[in-house]
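Please produce the structure of this protein holding pseudouridine-5'-monophosphate.
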Amino acid sequence: MRAFSGAGRLSAFSGRRVRRLSSTRRALSSLLCLSQQVKEALANGEPVVALESTIISHGMPYPQNVETAREVEAIVSAHGATPATVALIDGRLRVGLGDEELVRIGRGAEPVTKTSRRDMAAVLSQRVLGATTVSGTMIAAHLAGIRIFATGGIGGVHRGAEATLDVSADLTELGRTPVAVVCAGAKAILDLPKTLEYLETQGVPVVAYGNGGEFPAFYSAHSGLRAPWCLDTPAQVAQMVKSSTELGLQSGMVVAVPIPAEHAQAGAEIERAVDIAVGESNARGVTGKECTPFLLRRVAELTQGASLVANIALVKNNARVASQIAGSLAAMDR
Ligand code: PSU
Ligand code: MN
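Below is the modeled complex.
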């Protein structure tokens, strides 16, 4: 008798829960807005590559930022995948943008909020214009059903984090959201050994892609650090993504692609500028979400644009590799 009434209470509870869940789903479908191209590609099982927008708003100056965003989308398309740039616009989480929107984010005519997981609900509910970081873009990609994402570099553990606790939300996101992030490793504005340690703690596999097992350091192919895994072909990475999905791990992975050799020469000069910029940011007390944009801007100034040229080249290369991985993954699912 008691068991029976207990079951009755349980089913009344689950009825409410089901109603709450389905209204949450309805609310999500009005918040999450996929472009027609992205919707069709996903429905047809075709490859899609997610792209972030903070790199446009805060990672590069105008007009190179908008030109790069367009070129990266063109590279993804040329490699048979559909580009899906993510941003928060007019209270909606948009996956797949048009050209006017890329310009809106990059031109600097209106304020754009750098949006990581922490900021997503505020930006949506306040209906301000938001550009997504790696963490924000991973969330959107996962909600949309996209498993591959290309960018320049991920955030990481900042130098001096033992005092400031400045650890990018990208790293915890990688631990909890099943999206593979194709990048050129992490910048030397960060503490790279601690970044790798933290990723290990979060259960995030780091794959050095075609780099002899070495973790690349963004402007340079060489960090002197070993990545835990080394793969050399898109099919190998796609198979690893598939295994992770089949296990239901619900965590992401880092696919670290070295900067193309012809753009790596300026590496040493850029590293010197990085050291100067990190010193300046400490002296000025730059903290929180301002830190990465400040360092990127100063390094570009100090190298008279050489860092920007390298940055653009590696982003394009990552977009190409990500498209090949997405293509391989789509073929495996067919
Ligand atoms: N690294 C770059 N370029 C960038 C970023 C990182 O080389 O544009 C951006 C990305 O959007 C990344 C974010 O997700 O900075 C990390 O910021 P933070 O360190 O505040 O978590
Ligand atoms: Mn930070």
